[in-house]
Amino acid sequence: MRRWVVEQMLSGETMIGTFVQTPSASVCEVLCACGYDVLVPDAEHAPLSPADIQALVAAADTAGAPALVRIAGHEGSQIQYALDAGAAGIIVPRINTAEEARAVVSRATYPPHGERGSGPGRAALFGLDRSAAVDEARANTLIALQIESAEAVKNVDAILDVPGFGMAFVGPNDLSLSLGSPPEEELRAIIDDVLGRARARNLLTGILASTPDLVAHYRTAGVSLILTGTDLGLLAKGAKTCIDAVKP
After folding, report:
1. What is the CATH number of domain 2-246?
2. Catalytic residues, which ones?
3. 113: number of Cβ within 10 Å
4. Could you count the other beta carbons within 10 Å of the beta carbon of residue 124?
5. How far apart are CA 74 and CA 62, in angstroms?
6. d(CA 151, CA 64)
7. Do residues 108 and 90 make contact, with C-beta atoms less than 8 angstroms apart?
8. Among 58, 194, 37, which residue's Cα sits nearest to residue 126?
9. Which end of the chain is more exposed for a tag (fewer CB within 10 A), N or C?
10. Per-domain residue ranges of the chain
11. Distance between CA 51 and CA 36 in Å, rounded?
12. In this structure, what DSSP letter does residue 121 have?
């Protein structure tokens, strides 16, 4: 599953995903049945425990989609929980400097190039296949660093030059807030510049795009991973559409 998600994006295919904030295997099953390519358990903006994350990663695997976990912060324990659960990779929020990027890469990478511990978690079949799990993780774990602040934009070249990670993921909402809510055209120009700089370094790219027009724009631009929102957002929109149609 890990190899599949990385290879598909490296081949130039755009993958469509959504954040998952509900700790429910049924939600993963429904989203996969609807056609999402990737599911992203969102521990940054939802109260997901390590046990919740593992259950969602397993549910996504069973339903046929790789899981990339957006962790809550830069801490080594957050990274360890997600990768030990068998996630295909992690999306790490609020990367503002090259020093932070290097620290994350080290925590997510096994020695001798990093400091990740080798534990008997789900990724290693609970200790039954630890050696193969380490080899698989070294070859195919996707580390995505989230660019979402004015400071990150200022330091973007230094961040993108850090070795060992595979994707630059732009968070447009927080980026807009950090930049003082500039006009949409100005924000899009900044985002396009960041994505272009990442592609010039042969990095995969990702972004949140909440409308079909934005999805089309970024698909045409060759963005590797486009997330369309959250499971709860989809529920809210569907429920609102239904109630508006049937209630006086």
Report:
1. 3.20.20.60
2. 45
3. 12
4. 20
5. 28
6. 37
7. yes
8. 58
9. C
10. 2-246
11. 23
12. S
- The helix/strand/coil state of 168 is strand
What string of DSSP letters covers 13-75?
Answer: --EEEEEE-S--HHHHHHHHHHT-SEEEEBTTTS---HHHHHHHHHHHHHHT--BEEE-SSS-
Report the distance separating Cα 47 and Cα 33, nearest Å: 25
Token pair for 77 = 């324990």
* Percent of residues in the chain assigned helix, strand, coil, to nearest 5: 50, 15, 30
In 3D, which of 71, 102, 77 has the Cα closest to residue 89?
71
pLDDT tens string 110-129? 999 999 998 888 888 888 88
What phi and psi values does residue 207 have, to the nearest 5 degrees?
-160, 155
Q: What are 91's two structure tokens?
A: 């999306």
Which pLDDT does position 143 carry in this prediction? Answer: 96
Task: Output the pLDDT for position 140.
Answer: 85
Cα separation, 174 vs 54, in Å, equals 27
